[in-house]
Amino acid sequence: MKSICVKSLTKVYDNRVTALKNVTLSIEEGSFIAVMGHSGSGKSTLLQMAGLLDLPSEGSVVINGEEVSSLKKNELANVRMKTIGFVFQAFHLNPQLKAYENVMLPMLINPEYKKKSEIEQHARKLIDKVGLSERAEHYPNELSGGEQQRVAIARALANDPDFILADEPTGNLDSDNEANIFELLKELAKSGKGVMVVSHNEAILDYVDKVYYMKDGTLAEERI
Ligand code: ADP
Ligand code: MG
Prior knowledge:
- By secondary structure, the chain is α/β, with parallel strands linked by helices.
- The chain has one domain (3-223): 3-Layer(aba) Sandwich (Rossmann fold).
- It has helices spanning 43-50, 73-83, 99-108, 116-129, 145-156, 175-190; strands spanning 3-13, 17-28, 32-36, 58-63, 66-67, 84-88, 163-167, 194-199, 210-215, 218-223.
- Strand 9 (210-215) and strand 10 (218-223) form a beta hairpin.
- Helix 3 packs parallel to helix 5 and helix 4 packs across helix 5.
- The protein is globular and about 45 Å long.
- It binds adenosine-5'-diphosphate and magnesium ion (MG).
- Adenosine-5'-diphosphate is lined by residues 13-14, 17, 19, 37, 39-45.
């Protein structure tokens, strides 16, 4: 079973702000989990630790059976590139690139892909998969927020990661687009990805298999 397991994670910023306290949770393939909590409760910090974007002060992160704390920086980046796709509230698309070109980016830095034509073909397939075939040639500023987030999800899928980690993915969207994005993430989990969304949006509860609640850096409650 593929999984990201975070165990007894503590994160202290600047020797002063304890953003996470002894947090344990796992993200498993084929399942969709939400971590909810108010602003400042530690959700983004947890996502960054689980996604190897930052290291915890204490505790461990085990990805597909491998303890990652002993890895060097470039090894961490490699594991991250191959196993995790990220989605953020603000989409973070490159405004100079068309939708499908944004999706090509992660593959251009993956040495497993050699030919640019192959990369483009795969990017276009992913654009189709997120329902944007008609929009592939558009630039981000010609797309709605919901469409931009779909492009970002397609980009997160580019290197066929085992896991998708999303930080407030619907924070900038209206409720129709929000439902579409949650539905898409749910489908990805059904197709075998492990999906974690951190959010303070209760609407997500209709989609997920499991929800955790964060409060002041601790995982306060789990409801199934
Ligand atoms: P959430 O995503 O739930 O809003 P965060 O994980 O962003 O919460 O923040 C948790 C706590 O850690 C907050 O008190 C925040 O101010 C603090 N924090 C987050 N990132 C940093 C950082 N890079 N440096 C210092 N403090 C931080
Ligand atoms: Mg946050």
